[in-house]
Specification:
Blueprint (H helix, E strand, L loop, with lengths): L7 E7 L9 E6 L6 H11 L4 E2 L1 E5 L5 E4 L3 E2 L8
Antiparallel strand pairs: 1-2, 1-4, 3-6, 4-5
């Protein structure tokens, strides 16, 4: 009997780096986003974080992606 396997991106965000603080962590369904970068940006948007200094994401295939120079979330405002 095969179990249903859920594939997630496990995201860890650090506001400051180096830091002794615990990271902000979240899981994002792989079916909801196309990449590790989009998963990290989605967590930032949901938590209303504009900039983080360090990002680590465990991908569904077990590999890791890191952004050691940080990420900044730029939200586009569309005028109507």
């Amino acid at each position: 009997m095969q179990k249903n396997v859920v594939y997630d991106y496990d995201v860890a965000l650090w506001r400051y780096w180096p830091s002794s603080d615990f990271p902000i962590v979240a899981s994002v369904r792989a079916s909801a986003v196309p990449s590790a970068l989009v998963a990290a940006l989605r967590v930032m948007a949901k938590r209303r974080i504009r900039h983080v200094s360090y990002v680590a994401v465990r991908c569904p295939d077990g590999t890791f992606q890191r952004w050691e120079n940080g990420l900044t979330l730029h939200e586009e405002v569309v005028a109507s």
